[in-house]
Amino acid sequence: xxxxxxxxxxxLGLGYFSSTVGTAxxxxxxxxxxxxxxxxxxxxxxxxxxxxxxxxLREKSGGRLGLRIYAGGIAGDELDVLKKMRIGQLQCAxxxxxxxxxxxxxxxxxxxxxxxxxxxxVDKVHKALFNFFSEQFQKKGFALLAWTEVGNVNIFxxxxxxxxxxxxxxxxxxxxxxxxxxxxxxxxGVNPIPLAVTEVNTALNTGMIDTVYAPPLGALALQWxxxxxxxxxxxxxxxxxxxxxxxxxxxxxxxxLAVLLQKTMVKAMAELTQTLRQQRExxxxxxxxxxxxxxxxxxxxxxxxxxRIHEKVAQKLAGNIYPEELLxxxxxxxxxxxx
Length: 339
Hints:
By secondary structure, the chain is α/β, with parallel strands linked by helices. It has twelve helices and ten strands. The two termini are 38 Å apart.
């Protein structure tokens, strides 16, 4: 349970989960020491993996390359980190859609509701579009080192939700400032209540809201599940994360070190993704044991209304957050040319 909670804090991208002390790997200072920020707390699976990356970089570079890791949000939330990267105080960081969406809004196409049907589809699109998004991030002054996992996001509620009709009358929270969440719930026929994540617990306790969405790990970490009764097994969305480094700094690295950094990060994040997917299943088991009823994923026929929500939201946001050509490219990769 403790391991699961620590992991989720790493994934949510919330700067208010913080530590008070910076951390760095022991040993002689490398010639190229990359200041790396993450909101993941010390002891989490996420930070353990990043520390292994640091160890590998130092060993394979002969001590020339390493990371100085600022864990637990001590460098601030994702937007704070982004500002510090732009002025050179930090060089590299882990981001969720909250952060990299500010850099490159079009990447939020990956966060559309009901886009992905399984993990294999996620991996397929990430692989196919890696080079494309790398080029787009470069234009914004950042290099994409690797995708990483935030994972499936599910709806938690006090009332059982088996169909879209069951959403009527629910007081649904939406993350303030997230246009995709807002448009999704409006399309479902519900006017969401926009709040900062820090306000959700109070809103649940006072009855201001009775429905939220979060990865299972997140619901546990934030204790949102304690006042709710149901979790929809059908994920609302798959949330993507990424490791970005300042292009200016990346270009200063000798070629062999730049190649080493990216290869090491890609391998480490792939391993982390598999670990986190296993922990997702563990989290769902813990949620069930706590008394939450997990509503099974409905039949293919019963899922069609939810998939039509995807189509409507995707078209509504095309040309605004991302170009329609990019959306069509994603559909082609998924062999879903008409969604």
